């Protein structure tokens, strides 16, 4: 399968403002530590700058009429990182809302999460829950953070819930369809937009890293060498331009 790797997003085909826009864009925001290392700064400097990129890209996506932007902020595997790095990362949602909540409200952005947020530190959880509550009536872009999320664990959880519902007679075996299975995943709350149309990964890595494995079955994939802190509004428009020039078949001919 030919994977697209944009060498220089600024020189690809132009984005058509009147063309098709992916309803759901998912991003693996990779390369923050390497970006900082290139600048002879600590890794956490890259994470902090990456947080600023989150706000910039969310506002841009909101203006381009993207419906859902799912961002892989913290994976179930990230707990293995050094304690001081994990502690710093757990502070970023707090910093994010401290600084950007007014702008999120001005742009009618709704915050949601996927993942086991109940396992986050109390202070982080409270700030995230408060942001979800405060933005719940907003009708613009859904800014969906994958926090303490892992796709295989999500699929296993869904499988166990389905097994329980079959055992209790709530569900019969022949009622288990793609659509019913999807309803047991965290992303079911996204309704018609639960499957990403476009999945972007920065920093040159070409892997899914346990992200939206079920949901991304038919997603267009876009890989760019740029590190996440360098990912600009121009970079996003270049990815959307590439999406506009793909012919999606959903398994058909
Ligand atoms: C753990 C973590 C790491 C994190 N990074 C910055 C982006 C690059 C990836 C790693 C570091 N960012 N950036 C924003 C958030 C966030 C999460 C939830 C929320 F409701 C509001 C903001 C965030 N969370």
Automatic annotation (TrEMBL):
Transferase among keywords: yes
Annotated Gene Ontology cellular component terms: cytosol
InterPro entries reported in the protein's UniProt record: UPP_synth-like, UPP_synth-like_CS, UPP_synth-like_sf
Coiled coil regions in record: none
Pfam families on file: Prenyltransf
PANTHER family: DEHYDRODOLICHYL DIPHOSPHATE SYNTHASE 2, DEHYDRODOLICHYL DIPHOSPHATE SYNTHASE FAMILY MEMBER
Full protein name: Isoprenyl transferase
Lineage of producing organism: Bacteria, Bacillati, Bacillota, Bacilli, Lactobacillales
């Amino acid at each position: 399968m030919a994977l697209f790797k944009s060498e220089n997003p600024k020189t690809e085909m132009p984005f058509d403002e009147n063309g098709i826009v992916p309803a759901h864009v998912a991003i693996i925001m990779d390369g923050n530590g390497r970006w900082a290392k290139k600048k002879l700064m600590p890794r956490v400097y890259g994470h902090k700058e990456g947080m600023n990129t989150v706000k910039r890209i969310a506002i841009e996506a909101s203006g381009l009429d993207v419906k859902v932007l799912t961002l892989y902020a913290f994976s179930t595997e990230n707990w293995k990182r050094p304690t001081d790095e994990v502690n710093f990362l757990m502070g970023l949602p707090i910093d994010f809302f401290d600084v950007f909540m007014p702008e999120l409200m001005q742009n009618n952005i709704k915050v949601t999460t996927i993942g086991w947020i109940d396992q986050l530190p109390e202070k982080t959880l409270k700030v995230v829950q408060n942001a979800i509550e405060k933005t719940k009536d907003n009708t613009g872009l859904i800014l969906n953070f994958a926090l303490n999320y892992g796709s295989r664990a999500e699929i296993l959880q869904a499988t166990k819930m389905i097994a329980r519902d079959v055992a209790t007679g709530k569900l019969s075996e022949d009622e288990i369809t793609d659509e019913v299975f999807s309803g047991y995943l965290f992303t079911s709350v996204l309704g018609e937009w639960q499957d990403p149309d476009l999945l972007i990964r920065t920093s040159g890595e070409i892997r899914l890293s346990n992200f939206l494995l079920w949901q991304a079955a038919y997603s267009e994939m876009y890989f760019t060498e740029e590190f996440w802190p360098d990912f600009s509004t121009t970079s996003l428009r270049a990815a959307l331009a590439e999406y506009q020039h793909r012919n999606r078949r959903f398994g058909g001919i």
